[in-house]
Write a structure and sequence with these properties.
- There is one protein chain.
- With 136 residues, the chain is of the alpha+beta class.
- The protein has a single domain (3-133), classed as Roll (Thiol Ester Dehydrase, Chain A), CATH 3.10.129.
- Helices cover 25% and strands 39% of the residues.
- It has 3 helices and 5 strands.
- The chain has helices spanning 23-40, 45-52, 126-133; strands at 3-9, 54-65, 74-84, 88-97, 103-115.
Amino acid sequence: METFVWPIRVYYEDTDSGGVVYYANYLKFLERARTEWLRARGLEQDALLCDRRLLFAVRRLEVDYHRPARFNDRLEVISRVVRAGHASLTFEQTIRRVGSPEVLCGARVKVACIAAESFQSCRMPRDLLREIIGDA
């Protein structure tokens, strides 16, 4: 499936006392990239909530930290859906410095579609799945 690349710069507030990106902030970078991935498809999460009463929530996350990113680094988050189920999407995401093939952080993220009223997993409408991945 299609690869989406989203740029980000490391700010001072993203780093720990050693000057490297604090490990939990990589999760924020991954989340923002998935939001921008949806936005690039013309979908806003607040509109999905209001119009369709649907939310996406992280169900499972596996992350590997390989190398540190540092203050002022220009990074890119590469996101790709590797599995689209009826009620979930599984992403492979990597973070690297712009212009470098070296992976700093890699993750596999399963995101569940849930009904806003019950917070229970639910099937994605076929038209929404088509909008999201293009070939439902």
